[in-house]
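Q: Make up one entry.
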Amino acid sequence: MEVLKYKSKVPLKNKLIIIALAIILISAISVCITYAVNEKARDWINMNILRKEVTEEDVATIEIDGDKNQYIYAYDKYITILCNGKLEIYNSYGNKSYELDVEISNPIFESDGQYLAIAENKGQNIYVISDRKSIVGQ
C-alpha cells in the first residue's frame, strides 16, 4: 500500500499577512539600528516622531548667588546648598524640599545612600541628615 502525500496550499491571505509582518519587522529593526548609529537620524526622530525637545523653560534650575560663599553637594536624589548657617535641600526637580539650620561654616560632606553627614572641618560639630531629620553630634 502506498502512502499518499498531501501537499497543502497556503491561502493567499495568509501569505500576504506573513509578508507584511516580515516587512514591518525588517523596517523596525533597521530604524532601531539607524537610531542607535546615526546621530542626525536620532535627532530627527527625537524631534519629529518622538517629540522630544528640551527647551529652557523645561529645565529645572536652582538659583545660585556667585557672590556668596556657598557650599554645594549632591547626594541620593537631592542637591544641598549650605550658606550662612542655612542648609537648603532641593529635590531632583529643582524644588526646595526643606531647609535646616546648621552651625557649620567650613563644611566637609560625606554621603551614603539616603544619609548625608556634614561636619566642621577641623571642628567639633557634625550633622547626619536623612529625610527631613537632622541628628546633631559634637
